[in-house]
Amino acid sequence: MLQHWLLDPQAVYLNHGTFGVTPRRVLDLQHAMHVQIERHPARFMARELMSLAPEPPEHPPRLRAAAGEVAAFLGARGNDVVFVDNASSGVNAVLRSLRLSAGDEIVLFDHAYGAVARTAAFVAREHGARVVTVPLPFPLENEATCLALLDAALTPRTRIAILDHVTSETALVLPLARMAALCHARGVPVLADGAHAPGAIEVDIPSLGVDWYAANLHKWAFAPRGCGMLWAAPDRREGLHPPIISWGLDVGWHQEFDWTGTRDPTPFLCAPAGIAFITDLLGAAAMRAYNHALAWQAAEMLSARWGLPWQTPDSMVGCMVTVPLPQQLGTTAADAWKLREWLLHERDIEVAVVARSERLWARVSAQVYNDMSDIERLGDAIAQAVSPPC
Length: 390
Ligand SMILES: Cc1ncc(COP(=O)(O)O)c(C=O)c1O
Hints:
- The protein is of the alpha/beta class.
- Helix content is about 40%, strand content about 15%.
- The chain is built from 15 helices and 12 strands.
- It has helices at about 15-20, 25-40, 40-50, 60-75, 85-95, 115-125, 145-155, 175-185, 205-210, 255-260, 265-270, 270-280, 285-305, 335-345, 370-385; strands spanning about 10-15, 80-85, 105-110, 130-135, 160-165, 190-195, 210-215, 230, 320-325, 350, 350-355, 360-365.
- Strands 2-8-7-6-5-3-4 form a 7-stranded mixed β-sheet, with helices on both faces.
- It is globular.
- The protein binds pyridoxal-5'-phosphate (PLP).
- Pyridoxal-5'-phosphate binds next to helix 5 and helix 6.
- Pyridoxal-5'-phosphate binds near residues 87, 88 and 216.
């Protein structure tokens, strides 16, 4: 499968999750689209790309048509989806549109992505509100623990819960629909962070019962880098603004998000091609199944190799696993970075290494261009890092 990407065939790339890897076919289309834009930029950008008119034009502009295809992939309606540059932009839009008061609370788990936690902290401090960070054990052996801890953290002052669909460092698929139901029963709206979800796990946004869903399409859905999306329930769009205010202010939800100043629209317009790539290569279900099986096998093989327990339930694993590494490799973020750099520079292996719960962990991404030989190379390299040859 490697031939479908520009990846260096000598390298072992086990980090699809961090920035995604764009298939050749999608890059080719993006290049062709750049050429098309440059033939007449003003026609493309001002006439074909989007419309700032309050009423939808007879023929949907290109951005709206692309949003419709992305929405269909995620079980949603095109009208309910807008493009954003990345998941960070979607999260910023929602959090920075909140009208918080002093003493209000924003709830999230300590597995939340660092940039998202910082955005929550920024917004809270602007309003004299506070962030309630709920510690979630890792390894996490069941979904019930996560639901119980969330329930215990909600108070009458909770104004929003920010919940991951798939956590970043720990690679856990969280029970988002059940968490959202729990929050709603307590009157708390939910912002879902689905940065790692589209393409990696099955996503049907409306059935999750969340209020907002921010995600990346440039990771597991193969859009060119710089392609995120935001879904908002119809009753959550009033007062919701993108992080950049531009010409669409107060015109409508699409108009505000579709134009946030001049930028390269090709990542958004190529998002349907990323989805078509999944369908044509294997089909979404078969691709997810291959990646899940490889991730699971990687976790079993690597943890057995070090005699360390692998405790994550199958239902909480998507296309990535975060597996324990031997204790001798250290415990700190500096140790994690040192090992990651050694793996890259000395063994040509790219994998995320994180420090958590008093040890190091490797977060292994499984993508169809990987197979068990990549995992074995990682295992051998770790063995050499533990006992360097004399
Ligand atoms: C869970 C999660 N949320 C948000 C983000 C932010 O994504 P981006 O940097 O594309 O905005 C990431 C990035 O990896 C992530 O893992």
